[in-house]
Design goal:
Radius of gyration: 17 Å
Number of strands: 7
CATH superfamily: Hotdog Thioesterase
Strand order of the largest sheet: 2-5-6-7-4
Helix content: 10-25%
CATH architecture: Roll
CATH class: Alpha Beta
Shape: elongated
Order of helices and strands: EEHHHHEEEEE
Number of helices: 4
Number of domains: 1
Structural class: alpha+beta
CATH topology: Thiol Ester Dehydrase, Chain A
């Protein structure tokens, strides 16, 4: 669940680490749907038989599928400034894909607020470090620094 904070206390939340999100299982159906949306049908994602012969032993999720799951996970790890009425995705300062996510793996997000600053009155820029953990794996799927903007009344 997102945490509501007061704009007068934003400095207190730099370094705030949210609880890990619930787990999400990456299914072949989800991978196939993502392949259809992005027109990326590389065999390692969609051909289960061919993918068995790779070092991964199965299909793997697209790196961008794992990255796109941040929108889903943000519902649980976000810090929302009181008076929020609109948010914007401003992109990423850094993204590193470290470990492929094999089909039927479970992933979850860990998030830490790196910076919050008021750019204009009622407009706050947040930078959040997000790590996508793969259940049972020491290496995360990815680490990203996600920039967002929150508009508050």
């Amino acid at each position: 669940m997102a945490k509501i904070i007061n704009s007068n206390n934003i400095a207190d939340y730099v370094g705030f680490q949210a609880k890990p999100t619930p787990w999400h299982k990456i299914t072949q159906a989800q991978i196939n749907q993502f392949a259809d949306c992005t027109l990326d049908h590389q065999f390692i994602h969609v051909d289960e038989e061919k993918a068995k012969a790779t070092p991964f032993g199965s299909t793997i999720a697209h790196g961008f599928l794992s990255l796109s799951m941040l929108s889903h996970f943000a519902e649980d790890f976000s810090v929302i400034i009181d008076g929020f009425y609109m948010g914007l995705n401003a992109g990423f300062d850094k993204i590193r894909f470290l470990q492929p996510v094999t089909v039927n793996s479970r992933i979850r997000a860990h998030a830490k607020i790196l910076a919050i600053e008021e750019k204009k009155p009622g407009q706050f820029r947040l930078c959040t470090e997000v790590t996508i953990e793969i259940e049972g794996c020491d290496t995360p799927a990815l680490v990203a620094e996600w920039v967002s903007v929150q508009m508050v009344k």
